[in-house]
Design brief:
Blueprint: H1 3-23, H2 30-45, H3 48-51, H4 59-76, H5 81-99, H6 103-123, H7 127-158, H8 171-176, H9 183-191, H10 193-206, E1 231-233, E2 246-252, E3 262-272, E4 274-275, E5 279-281, E6 288-292, E7 296-297, E8 310-315, E9 329-335, E10 346-349, E11 355-358, E12 364-370, H11 396-405, H12 412-426, E13 428-429, H13 441-449, E14 451-452, H14 454-467, E15 472-484, E16 489-493, E17 497-505, E18 509-513, H15 518-521, H16 528-549, H17 553-577, H18 579-603, H19 611-633, H20 644-653, H21 659-674, H22 681-696
Parallel strand pairs: 13-14
Antiparallel strand pairs: 1-5, 2-8, 2-16, 3-15, 4-5, 6-10, 7-9, 8-12, 9-12, 10-11, 15-16, 15-17, 17-18
């Protein structure tokens, strides 16, 4: 293989990986990504002979000036500064690739590629970035070595060096040579990636996690997800189910050995109470913060039971930052990332049962406790008239149809069930319904087209319930999810966006009703092979994000604890296998002790009375270790560098329910171990009893 060809190939590969690391971060819009990739292909297609042509001499300067002018203009037009900088870095690489001449320019290409890799880390570091990083580890050693060799060759030529025949160094001949770079050289260079990867992995796993959140870019998508705004216009929401982007992943506790492939959740994001004839909106906007880092009650003072079912939701970045809850949610808790000095996420409670979150992270993970008997989350109604409001110009035939359908119903729940059933049975689901373009979308849907998307179904039911005297509101969120067997979670995509109705039923609260036919709530059908590949990629991406991107101090501590436990377990197994040797050692030790005591008794020597003291310290230490184990089972871990007393005082200062008991036990333990406090049997039994009480205690969920 020719030296020049291999060098150019490795340099091109490194530059391509750097640009792909930026593109895969999701920071670029679709248009910019296409422009960057097309420009990259064009730059790589420029032949080396063209780059040395006289007409190419000033192309790099002109192209760079054009890029600067374009990016400055975009910045003036209020484009995100981060987007401007990252796009400029990608354009700079494309210009350099297309106009490079010599080893110095190739080294600039390599430096830019490494900078792109660093930028990709800050921008997100998803699975695509991980693949680029792995390839860079393979390509970079060869690219760096070959670039250095070419720089030395060209440097010797410029300095007038001569070869062993006395002739000047012939750079083109060396670049064409097949003896400089061979198969062994390439294999060796690529094999260097193995120790580099191992060193990087060890450094990543064991280097202490620190709170450098200031280096993480808030990578929220620039475009809002359709349908999650404070206003839903029936004429513009008909294509909610066209985007397959993942919105969240839902894990069920105790989902069983064979979870259903599709499951309906009705995860509510927000509810809208005011309708003006074409659009739904909220009549109130006030929000107030809830407590941070603790359980938040959905409908205080109602509390969750200790054995209530739970689900865990991992929400991707979404704007506005709404939390999605099942209709029987009782409480929720945001989970932080475990970074030192990082601000804990907290919730903002809004109108109509809406919860928003504030977090330094780009997404959020939260746990939801559900009602054991399926009781609705919200049980009260404060202003009944607000949920009976109808537009003054509502067509009269909508009222008449509502009263006609519910004429034989005796209760509000029967009215709701009748309207729900008739809408499902007598109307068709159609995302391209012409009703949305009509002046009265709901009227056209009910009496003319008789087909529509889920927003038309829910709007029709909500208005008919109000006309029949039943308080109602329109709810938007996500309906169903598909099970991913490779990741053991349900994935919910933007195409699963849905709208339904909540009606207030006396004695039950706000009950969920879904009038949309089954065709409108089922997940989109996917080609089996494509669905399998998509599930594998999604599960791999989730594990990469969980174990690499979100690797934090808490995970690091847990990993080290497991490694320690495994080592102790192996030692225990080894002890069992060598039980004979252990018995021999015990017997020899006992014999030696017996002979020593017998000799001491004969000589009249009396050993110092340290044994009771040592036993007291050992017992106190064992009690404190059992206390730490009990606290660890509840998620309360003492950092290796934190003294026991400081750890207990921190719990008291944080008003933790166990803080007082932990502080009392810790003080007694320290007094016995270091203060020469005598330890009676009564004291020991009391400490052991209190530790058992802590281990068996269920922390009560308190209202914020």
């Amino acid at each position: 293989m020719r030296f020049g060809f291999v060098h150019r190939l490795m340099t091109n590969a490194l530059a391509t990986l750097g640009v792909l690391a930026l593109v895969s971060s999701g920071q670029f819009s679709t248009t910019v990504s296409i422009i960057v990739l097309v420009g990259l292909v064009g730059a790589l297609s420029v032949r080396e002979s063209w780059q040395h042509h006289p007409h190419f001499r000033h192309v790099d300067t002109i192209a760079l000036l054009v890029v600067v002018v374009v990016q400055v203009t975009r910045f003036v037009l209020r484009t995100s500064p981060l987007d401007v900088i990252i796009e400029f870095a990608a354009a700079l690489q494309i210009v350099r690739l297309a106009t490079r001449r010599g080893a110095a320019h190739d080294q600039q290409v390599i430096v830019l590629a490494l900078l792109h890799l660093i930028a990709g880390t800050v921008l997100g570091g998803g699975l695509g970035y991980g693949l680029c990083f792995a390839c860079v580890l393979i390509v970079a050693p060869a690219a760096l070595v070959l670039s250095h060799l070419r720089r030395e060759v060209e440097g010797n030529y410029r300095q007038g060096a001569r070869d062993r025949t006395g002739l000047p160094v012939d750079v083109p001949r060396i670049l064409r040579s097949r003896r400089v770079v061979g198969r062994t050289f390439l294999i060796t260079m690529c094999a260097l990636s193995v120790p580099i990867f191992l060193f990087t992995a060890v450094l990543f796993v064991f280097f202490p996690r620190v709170g450098l959140s200031l280096l993480l870019v808030d990578n929220h998508p620039s475009e809002r997800m359709t349908g999650f705004n404070d206003k839903v216009d029936l004429g513009t929401v008909g294509l909610l189910r066209d985007n397959p982007a993942v919105v969240m992943r839902v894990r069920l506790d105790g989902s069983g050995d064979a979870p259903p492939p599709h499951l309906t959740f009705h995860l509510r994001g927000t509810a809208l109470d005011r309708y003006n004839g074409r659009a739904w909106s909220r009549s109130e906007e006030a929000r107030k913060p809830d407590s941070a880092g603790d359980w938040v009650l959905v409908d205080p003072p109602r509390m969750a039971q200790s054995d209530a079912p739970r689900i865990t939701i991992e929400l991707e970045p979404i704007e506005p930052p709404v939390l999605f809850l099942p209709p029987d949610a009782v409480s929720l808790r945001l989970k932080g990332q475990g970074l030192v000095n990082a601000q804990q996420p907290f919730t903002l409670r809004g109108p109509e049962g809406e919860f928003r979150y504030h977090s330094e992270d780009r997404g959020v993970k939260y746990e939801v406790t559900r009602s054991k008997n399926g009781r609705p989350s919200f049980s009260r109604i404060e202003d009944r008239a607000k949920y009976l409001q109808l537009p003054t110009d509502l067509p009269e035939r909508i009222r008449e149809k509502a009263l006609e359908w519910t004429a034989l119903a005796d209760t509000d729940e029967e009215k709701a069930r009748i309207i729900e059933r008739r809408l499902r049975d007598e109307y068709a689901y159609d995302r391209n319904s012409p009703a949305g373009a009509a002046d009265e979308p709901v009227d056209d849907f009910l009496f003319e087209s008789k087909r529509g998307h889920c927003e038309l179904f829910s709007s029709a039911m909500a208005l008919m319930l109000r006309a029949a005297g039943v308080p109602s509101r329109n709810v938007i969120g996500f309906g169903a999810g598909s099970y991913n067997e490779y990741g053991d979670f349900y994935v919910i995509r933007q195409s699963d966006a849905h709208s339904w109705v909540e009606a207030y039923i006396e004695g039950k609260g706000w009950v969920t009703f879904d009038p949309t036919p089954a065709a409108g709530t089922a997940p989109e059908a996917r080609f089996p092979l494509w669905a399998t590949l998509q599930d594998i990629v999604d599960a791999t991406s989730e594990k990469w994000r969980k174990h690499v991107v979100s690797y934090d101090l808490e995970q690091q501590y847990g990993l080290l604890s497991r490694l320690t436990d495994d080592r102790e377990g192996r030692q225990e197994q080894g002890t069992k296998r060598s039980i004979a040797g252990f018995v021999v050692v015990i017997v020899l030790g006992a014999t030696a002790a017996f002979l020593y005591l017998r000799k001491k008794k004969k000589t009249g020597l009396k050993a110092p009375d340290h044994e009771p003291r040592d036993r007291n310290i050992a017992r106190a230490t064992a009690i404190y270790e059992s206390l730490e184990a009990a606290l660890g089972a509840k998620g309360i871990h003492r950092a290796p560098g934190t003294p026991p007393l400081r750890h207990a005082e921190n719990l008291v200062n944080a008003s933790h329910p166990l803080g007082g008991d932990v502080l009392d036990i810790t003080q007694v333990y320290l007094s016995i171990r270091f203060g020469k406090m005598p330890m009676t049997d009564e004291t020991g039994h009391d400490l052991e009893r209190r530790v058992k009480a802590i281990r068996a205690r269920d922390l009560k969920i308190e209202a914020p």
